[in-house]
Amino acid sequence: MPTTLLAPPTQTATSRAAGPTSGKVSDSDRGQVSVFHKLGRVVTRHPVYVVAAWLVVILGAVALGLGSADKWHVKASSQASQLSKQYESARAQAVADRAFPQSPQSSTATLVVTRMDGAALTAADGDVIAGLPQQLTADVADHSIGKKAARTELTTPSVSPNHKVALTTTVFDQSADDAGTAQAVQLLRTATKHDLSGTGLQGRYTGDAAGQADNASLESIIQVVMLGLIALLLFVLFRSVLVVLISVLSILLVGEAALGMLTIAAHLFHFTLDSSITGLLPVVLFGVGTDYIVFLLFRYREGLRDGEDHRTAMAGAIGRVGETVVASAFAVAVSFAALLASQLSSFRVLGPALGFAVVIMLLSGLTLVPALLTMWGKRLARRPSWTAAKSARLAEAAGRTVTRRPALVTVVTAGLLAVLALGLAGMKTSYDQNPYRPGSESALGYHDLQTGFPKGALSPVKVYVSAEQGTLSGSALNHYAAELDKLPDVSDATVVALDKSASTAEIDLPLTINPLSTKALDAVRHNIEPAAHNLAPTGTKALVGGDPATAADVRSALGHDEKLIFPLAGLLIGLVLLLMLRALLAPLYLMASVVLGFAATLGAAVLIYQHLGHQAGINYQLPLIVYLFVSSIGTDYNILIIGRLREELRKGLAPRAAARAALSKAGPAAAAAAVILAASFGSLAISPSLRQIGFSVAVGVLMSTFVTAWLLIPSLTTVLGRKALWPMRTADRVRSGPSALHAHGAGRVGIPALATHYRGEAVLVAAAAGPNVGGHL
């Protein structure tokens, strides 16, 4: 009776000695050489040409992009400009642009003056404040920065009803994101401090330009923190400075090329790259780009541990991981592309821009990075830490848990996600996202302002009245403003501007409540808009705009978007899964798990921020952003696990053994990539406006990996067995004894493959080559 040698899941000395194939039956071994195997051979045979081609693309994109950056890399003037003309606030903004033209990228900084002792302003204080606009204008005009900064003069100061606060505003012709605007704000702050020295008064600047000037340093801090975390995690994973340098530098260079290409596209097709894109683009580039590099390196290291040489292992890694990575990337890209259906122009740009970033990082991950590693990473193939067999204890423990009690694991994990999803009960969305960094001058100035003026002083409702014929009557306008002033939650309605032809007027309605609260948005929609239309003077037409009205319209637009984009993105991701898996049942429960994961993530955010954090509601963009990121990027890890599970089934393993093998081999790669991506998004927690998005996506990514991809999907696939991937053809279940040789094509591979049952499971056995297998064993 022949003796059999059991081959454990990890590498053995015997199997490594067997040669590069190590007993594995790959698609290429079967004669089915995929396009990714061909790509792997090209990249590893001609790495210099691949790197040179990328350098040409990067340098060209950056050079051409810089020529258009100043003109097109700007921030939109207001959310109203992002809405279609079907919304009243957009039509009101069009009237304002025509009657009171300003730079389309204008921004403001409001100077808030108070006494240091908190007392009411005196007559002497009033004289000082009255002279501030002229004095500050002169101070700034004499400075080199002031000469370059295009801005209007400061407005005439206004004093609050309680005489404790005075305001004057500077309107800049450039966006708040512009570097010149930030420099001018800092210059104004320095000049104000000098001019008020010794007067007992203090002046603090707030508003969008001042807030952005305070937050500008945060963007640099976020990128440094993100790069530091990624570099640290890559080093911990691979113990190689070379891997860290190649990964980080390649993503930086390709990221610059991507931004250059987007800038060129903005120039050609006349769209705006606003701060929402520039804020999320680096995170997507580094997070997703690192994911694909990690997937590649884990497969490369697996090849080395199976005895392959450096180039063969790298080419094989591209060939084996290519289909999975492409499917993952396209799942992300098509979900972002669903934003093209949005009613907000910023989202219609954001979706394709992020999708393009994902695709270009995919291309670099399959070509540039492996080419660089092929050229300079030969020493990795000789390191014991890369070639010696190591067990993934956590992943193997998860595999044992899943395969021993698959039905129980399915119920428990699905139940856990469902419990978290219950947090959605009572969910509210908030448009009042404080843009000011805590403790900054802009935050302190905004607090000072509210001690004397209504909460809506900086963001009043704006009513634009236009004469259908002739000119407007001053008395009629004043009467109209007095009637609007009687509305609930409105204070001190005032006619603030009349255009040169006297045919259009602007009436500001400061609100006594938070202008971006749900109550304010409802008041605009149900009280102010109907009253403004009905009370308008005879022969005139009134349109309601301003930040509160725009927010109310954005709320309506997002309600439309969520009803359309959610199912559209799900359908597109499902189609990618269907094409990748070529199965009917698996894509269905994969998508169901993704939806459940999204609900659990959003529910957790509601619990943390709304219920435990006592905030008015979650960020109004959070449901849509989390859905797109968690559903698409979370699908990445599901694809990685189930793709490996399918690969193991094709080798003939039983479903339980295939699930255990898939988790032990692909689980660590998914976990590493998820931790890096979560760290990338987690760095956004530093930003006041992106904190909720960063935290929620990070939690969703970790949940999608360690709950869904590690436990729910493998356990459910184990329960369903081969039916999960029907009608995909898999090899027959591995049988015991030497007869298994022919079932697995041992003769074609050239390395006899035996199978035996160990602990009730089919395990492939690698044996020494030779015609008389029994004799050798």
Can you offer a commentary on this structure?
The protein has 777 residues and is of the alpha+beta class. Among the domains are: 13-32 and 732-776, no CATH class; 34-72 and 239-390, Multidrug efflux transporter AcrB transmembrane domain (Multidrug efflux transporter AcrB transmembrane fold), CATH 1.20.1640.10; 82-87 and 440-552, Alpha-Beta Plaits; 98-214, Alpha-Beta Plaits (2-Layer Sandwich). It is built from 27 helices and 12 strands. It has helices at residues 13-17, 35-45, 47-72, 88-99, 123-141, 144-148, 179-195, 208-238, 241-269, 275-305, 310-337, 345-366, 368-376, 384-387, 393-404, 406-421, 441-450, 474-484, 518-534, 546-581, 585-612, 622-650, 655-682, 691-720, 740-743, 746-749, 773-776, and strands at 107-115, 158-159, 166-172, 201-206, 429-430, 461-467, 494-498, 504-509, 540-545, 618-619, 753-758, 761-766. The chain has a 4-stranded antiparallel beta sheet. The protein has a 4-stranded antiparallel beta sheet with strand order 7-8-6-9, with helices on both faces. A hairpin with a 6-residue loop joins strand 2 and strand 3. Helix 7 (179-195) packs across helix 8, helix 15 crosses helix 16 and helix 16 (406-421) packs across helix 21. The longest helix has 36 residues, at 546-581. It is elongated and about 90 Å long. Mean pLDDT is 82; it is low at 1-32, 71-77 and 732-777.
